[in-house]
Design brief:
Keywords: Membrane, Transmembrane, Transmembrane helix. By secondary structure, the chain is of the alpha+beta class. It is built from 9 helices and 11 strands. 27% of the residues lie in helices and 25% in strands. Strands 1, 2, 3, 4, 5, 6, 7, 8, 9, 10 and 11 form an 11-stranded antiparallel β-sheet that branches. A hairpin with a 7-residue loop joins β8 and β9. The protein is globular.
Length: 366
């Protein structure tokens, strides 16, 4: 970690600490970690940087828990840099971590994530349903649903030269109109090859990619109807659009698809507390779901983790991160637990995540 990187870390983290505690354990005994810490502490403030006026800082975009959006989007990328230094026992500096770091789950302490049994999810899901039912929805300023997501995406390519992979950070902004038409703007950062290497030809960020889809492309405007379905029918609806809809799934596959279906429903919609309550109640009847306990998500928000049990033969575990205070989904982690899936990275590894930073009803898709 050079001086320029230290400055970037200090500026972007802004006091947040998304690095799991298990990574920091005994970090003071590792030369690279001590050197990085000393350098950060010794770095003086930049006299050329003037603080923003208070009224400007107050207008800056923030997530529900007050973390600036700019910081929230950058936390995952900066965490990768920090973990690369702190977790390297040989003290060899690396530009970035191979994949985003695993989050630190409350019930995953002395075991690998693939073997963590967790606790029964039903009581937790019932509590989340109660919290969602009691949620006080913020006032609407318009009839367009807006969702802002920060994500890392694992992209692999297999051809005659072998298998190559990259971890690509980015953001997605989605606006859904009342007629179901939608507009999306995707921004990708600098893709990093597995191993922390920059790809051949440099690392220029890609320009924003904008897509529009006509009326009826999104069912977000009709999601409130889910709240009136019975749990059995709602579970069937959640399976729509997943791999389980194309064949007769096994019970293990059904459990995984229910989590993926829940994430799919949420990724481009402002979901009401009534719908969230119905979904969590429906999932409470799935005995293969467990909780991994409390966790801080990628934006430093407190959440509870819901996933499939270790006995379910899923090579990639989807993990839903839910705010226990209001029952809203704040993120989805996808963790490789079986290397036979062919990702080409050691397990366990985060092969993708979505962090929902903003959901709001707005006046127009500006």
């Amino acid at each position: 970690m050079n001086d320029h990187e230290v400055h970037k870390v200090r500026a972007l983290l802004g006091g947040a600490n998304p690095v799991p505690e298990r990574v920091l354990d005994r970090a003071h005994e590792r030369p690279a970690a001590r050197e990085a810490l000393d350098r950060i502490v010794r770095t003086p403030p930049d006299p050329s940087r003037r603080p923003l006026p208070r009224e400007v800082r107050a207008r800056a975009g923030r997530t529900r828990d007050g973390l600036p959006v700019r910081v929230a989007v950058g936390v995952a990328a900066v965490t990768a840099v920090a973990v690369a230094v702190l977790a390297d026992p040989l003290g060899t500096p690396r530009a970035v971590a191979d994949t985003p770091p695993l989050l630190s789950y409350g019930l995953v302490v002395d075991t690998e994530l693939a073997e963590a049994t967790g606790d029964e999810a039903a009581p937790v899901l019932a509590s989340l349903a109660d919290a969602a039912s009691a949620r006080v929805e913020p006032p609407r300023t318009g009839d367009v649903q807006y969702v802002h997501v920060a994500r890392w995406t694992f992209e692999g390519t297999t051809d005659s030269r072998g298998t190559r992979a990259a971890v690509v950070p980015g953001t997605v902004d989605t606006w859904v109109r009342p007629d179901g038409s939608l507009r999306m703007i995707e921004r990708s950062g600098e893709p990093l090859e597995v191993g922390g290497r920059l790809p051949d030809g440099g690392a220029a960020s890609e320009p924003p990619e904008e897509q529009t889809f006509g009326p009826g492309a999104s069912d977000a405007p009709t999601l409130d109807t889910l709240a009136g379905l019975t749990p059995d029918v709602l579970r069937e609806r959640l399976l729509d659009g997943t791999v389980c809809a194309a064949r007769e799934p096994t019970p293990d596959e059904t459990a995984v698809c229910l989590l993926e279906g829940t994430a799919r429903v949420q990724e481009r919609a402002v979901v009401s507390g009534r719908v969230d309550a119905a979904v969590w109640s429906a999932l409470a009847g799935e005995e293969r779901l467990v909780t991994l306990g409390g966790v801080l998500d990628r934006a430093g928000r407190r959440a509870v983790a819901i996933t499939v049990g270790s006995e379910v033969g899923a090579p990639v575990r989807p993990i839903l991160l839910v705010d226990p205070a209001d029952g809203s989904l704040v993120g989805v982690e996808r963790v490789l637990v079986d290397e036979s899936a062919g990702y080409g990275v050691p397990a366990p590894a985060v092969v993708g995540f979505d962090a929902y930073l903003t959901r709001a009803w707005v006046d127009e898709s500006a």
